[in-house]
Amino acid sequence: MTTSLDERNRDGTRIIxxxxxxxxxxxxxxxxxxxVVVITGTGAPxxxxxxxxxGHHSPERWAHAAEERRTxxxxxxxxxxxxxxxxxxEVLLHEASHALGFVREIKGTANGNRWHNKKFAAxxxxxxxxxxxxxxxxxxxxxxTITPEAVRTYGTVxxxxxxxxxxxxxxxxxxxxxxxxDPDDGEGGKKKTGGRREAVECDCEPPRRLxxxxxxxxxxxxxxxxxxxxxxxxxxxxxxAEPEEK
Length: 246
Known about the structure:
It contains 7 helices and 12 strands. It is of the alpha+beta class. It is elongated.
């Protein structure tokens, strides 16, 4: 069946409409999740990078004329649309976890919003995701997967996403919910940190603090001799307005 020119001109509307409908389904089950402005596009890094961003949530990004309120931004990479409805829902639930954390004033990320802590993991579980069993280097508990129960819960939404046969961007290089699979790959490939040291803390009360390089943290766990827990990136004191990514 040939698609008319008028129908093709509505492809963007169909994509955004499908994502908005899926987000609304999440809101019906979790009323605290706020409305968002949905955008899409390529998640590929600029300047020849290797890995792509699958999505992000940016609080208070969009202003409204003659109103004081601001609306968060939800980005879903066009490459994810090629993976099927369950993959799209996985990204949406991840970003909904960030949105819920912002509403509740729970800081779930640190280190430029790349490290996802246990507070984020708890929010992700609440939304229907399964976080990794233990924190991963640099990204923490970011790499969450949609649970079988959530797939059943959002089964109708997932089937509609797949039945819509939405246009997509190809060339997906891999990655996890809303960040690069290899966190060292920046916009131009391998990120150069110049040996910059970052603050890490253990679970002591008050926490003991060290300053180590990201490379040292990636090479293996650094354990505290007092509480016997891992040192993880210290959380900043204030909420960042940057898009929250894995």
